[in-house]
Amino acid sequence: MVRSFRWYKRYLKHLLAFSMRPFTLKSLYEFLRYIGGGGSVGEDKRLRELWRAALDLGFIREDGSVTERGLRFVSAYERGDGGSIHELFMEALEPYRVVYGLISRGVTQPSELVALSGFNAVVVDVVLRLTREVERLGMPMRGELWGMFEKVLFDKYRELARRRWSKYVTILDLLEEVKRELRFPRRVVEEMFREFVARRKGDIVLTGSPAGEVAGFEIGGRRYVYIMLKT
């Protein structure tokens, strides 16, 4: 469907006017535990802000009950599961989804993120802080997310190997492809890759660069440049 110029102008105005209530993962978690335990908001300004943020995310209902999505967030926070929280925010929080999409394509300067996302500087700053918090939590190396990571890693390895006519592909190129496909924070992808190497030693060959002219990736105190997977 073709959109009119007027429609795009109205949509841009909506983005520029978007107001995102600031919160941290910890404050949101503590609020959900509090409200889920029967606590009331009253006239407390900060609690009312968290109420609105949780409502916007779909973590609570208008009557104050915690939704299934909110319970998933609480459980993920308690497990230190940054990957699941990242997925929840990608589903439920438009500014996070838009800004993170730009970051995954290499846009990192706040001024560029403001210009390209259409959101104001306050919203972009809140999202950047949330992405850093999610990265610090890390990713649990188990379950469906781990299986998804392994599948994408092998798929992207085969694509790069075919494209370059070589069984050896550069680790950094491989991780960039995986990060772009999964839309996980870079730090999470790197942590999962190190865990993958530890688990699958018999299926992996790692090598350095003879002349050291290619940037490498550190694993166990050594820097490696290329990887070959036994697929």
Q: In percent, how helical is the residue content?
A: 55-70%
Number-wise, the strands total 5
Shape: elongated
Count of helical regions: 11
Order of helices and strands: HHHHHHHHHEHHEEEE
- Let me know the average pLDDT: 82
Q: In angstroms, what is the radius of gyration?
A: 21 Å
Overall description:
The chain is mostly helical and 231 residues long. It has two domains: 5-137, no CATH class; 143-229. The chain contains eleven helices and five strands, in the order αααααααααβααββββ. It has helices spanning 5-17, 25-36, 45-57, 68-79, 82-92, 94-104, 110-117, 121-137, 143-164, 171-182, 186-199; strands at residues 169-170, 204-207, 217-219, 222-224, 226-229. The strands form two sheets. A three-stranded antiparallel sheet has the order 1-5-2. The chain has a two-stranded antiparallel sheet with strand order 3-4. Strand 3 and strand 4 (222-224) form a beta hairpin. The longest helix is centred in the middle third of the chain and has 22 residues, at 143-164. The relative contact order is 0.09. Mean pLDDT is 82; it is low at 7-18.
In a nutshell, what does this entry contain?
With 231 residues, the chain is mainly α. It contains eleven helices and five strands; from the N terminus they run αααααααααβααββββ. The strands form two sheets. Strands 1-5-2 form a three-stranded antiparallel β-sheet. It has a two-stranded antiparallel ribbon with strand order 3-4.
